[in-house]
Design brief:
Elements (H helix, E strand, L loop, with lengths): L5 H13 L3 H12 L5 H15 L3 H15 L3 H6 L2 H14 L2 H12 L2
Helix pairs in contact: 1-4, 2-3
């Protein structure tokens, strides 16, 4: 597995735009910051929003392409792997690339 590069960021941005995920992510982020937030509920709502947004075959292909590139696998390997493996890959990518800190930094820059 490799680190996320600049091209991946733009692929991810296009994927988010075509899947109309921006509002879902904003809602999850805002809900998660609330003092009495139920993180499980916030997470489940975000997952349901994302799944509903990703049913377009073009979005699905873009997802396979992005994940395959970062995880250094073939697109068909990503498509055919177990859901558990896909989730583990996504978690590993987020952890190794410190995605949470990146999103915090990006959101604080957009507020200035």
């Amino acid at each position: 597995m490799r680190k996320i590069n600049t091209a991946d960021v733009f692929k991810m941005a296009r994927l988010m735009k075509s899947a109309k995920l921006t509002e879902s992510i904003k809602r999850a982020y805002t809900a998660g910051k609330e003092k009495d937030a139920n993180i499980e509920e916030v997470g489940m709502n975000a997952i349901l929003d994302i799944m509903g947004s990703c049913c377009d075959t073009g979005v699905e292909k873009s997802f396979y392409e992005l994940l395959a590139g970062i995880s250094e696998k073939a697109e068909n390997e990503v498509r055919d792997q177990s859901l558990e493996t896909t989730i583990a890959d996504i978690k590993r990518i987020c952890t190794e690339n410190n995605i949470v800190n990146f999103l915090k930094s990006a959101s604080s820059m957009s507020l200035k």
